[in-house]
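User: I'll paste a sequence; please echo it back and then give the predicted structure.

Assistant: Echoing your sequence first, then the prediction.
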Amino acid sequence: MLPIGIFSKFCNVTTKTLRYYDEIGLLKPVYINNENGYRYYNTEQLVTVLVIKKLKLYGFSLEEISEIMKTPDDNDLFLFYMKKKQEDMQNKIKDYTHILTSLNKDIINLEKGVNIMAYLDDIQVSITETQPKNILFLRQKMNVSDYGGYLGRLYEIIMKDKYKTIGAPLSIHHDKEFDPENYDIEIAVPVEDKTEKTRELSGGLCATVLYKGPYSNLTSVYAKLIQWIETEGYKITNAPYEIYLTNPGTTAPENYMTEIYFPVAKK
């Protein structure tokens, strides 16, 4: 057995960290001397520390690592967690790539003396009279990062109950304020069949924008729309909604096409 100090030296982890791992149940010493409280570890636990360090390098939280280490020999479960982390990391790389592209464009514009928000001038707002839509819907208080999962659930219902879709998916934003962890969103798909699971999205006068670009820039479109509505003497009468005309799974973010609608009336 190795005392905690020697074990700490060999695995290059501080004794403070090892004590914390013991406290949360992640890595417990094999023996604790009742007289002096000294902790002792066996040599096999050096490999356990290496696994923990590797998982931390991959971005796993200690909570996730604790769950994985409950069954360290379950190769299928280990593989599941690793592939999920791989997917998360690939998505983050994708997000940062788009952010870097936007940053580079802004730097170029600034070097030319162009304001970085000048693109707002290219957003064209129009007024349109929309028609009612019969929608299959799922309204949920959700973390916005879980949106894709809930949309998947809606399409599972469509497949299971054999609904005939007649339009692109949309989301209706009901909250008065933005709470990304508990946001009131209604996810919907226009369908032909009218059932107890569907409702009518009413038509009417809307201020609208057709926007091409990543979803991260939709906030700018909202700002332009609200400014336009106020300037032109309209008022917002109902929850705004977005229609997603392109599939993000097969389309580059710079080519996403989104229609944004604000139901309005003249003041």
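The chain has three domains: 2-72, 77-116, 121-266. Residues 2-72 form a domain with the Multidrug-efflux Transporter Regulator; Chain: A; Domain 2 fold (CATH 1.10.1660.10).
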